[in-house]
Amino acid sequence: MWFDTWSDVLRVLLVGVAAYLSLLVLIRISGKRTLAQFNAFDLVVTVALGSTLATILLTSDVSFVEGAVALALLLGLQVLIALAVTFSRPLRRAITAQPTLLVWEGRLDASAMRAHRVSRGDVLQAIRQGGHGDLADVGAVILESNGRISVIAAGAIGDGSSLEGLLPHE
């Protein structure tokens, strides 16, 4: 349990360094978006990369080359899906959650909150964290595609162009 052999420890050290460097190179090649976690799909890829790295490190049944190919496959698929989502609206809708307006002009949308399992307390907390003490000071609260909640002050709505497709009158 505490120690098997020095060769196992040496394997973890050598394969660990090689796998870590490979992952860094592959992430650099695949681009900045790879770990940005814009949506649930990106989060799943990030978790899968961590799991794959752990498997490469700790499972002697998986060779370094097999692990590196698995990492490259995950990152390659993530890049392909990101490109496809960029150019295909139907695929974007299938893979990426759409943002949802939870508050408009100081009024909570209870049905949107229920549909996305967001409580009044969650919304109020986001409003407070945004530096607002009065719901009337809030122009919009949006549940973003990545699960974060954005708060826009009533005086900062401007022309509302960042809310395209979300406003109730559209």
Automatic annotation (TrEMBL):
Membrane protein topology class: Multi-pass membrane protein
Superkingdom assignment: Bacteria
Keyword Nuclease in annotation: no
Domain YetF C-terminal positions: 89-156
Location relative to the cell: Cell membrane
Keyword Membrane belongs to the record: yes
A Pfam family recorded for this sequence: DUF421
Primary localization class, coarse: membrane
Domain YetF-like N-terminal transmembrane: residue ranges: 18-82
Keywords of the record: Cell membrane, Membrane, Transmembrane, Transmembrane helix
InterPro entries according to UniProt: DUF421, UPF0702_alpha/beta_dom_sf, YetF_N
Transmembrane parts of this sequence: 12-31, 38-58, 64-85
Family note: Belongs to the UPF0702 family.
Name used for this protein in its record: DUF421 domain-containing protein
Lineage of producing organism: Bacteria, Bacillati, Actinomycetota, Actinomycetes, Micrococcales
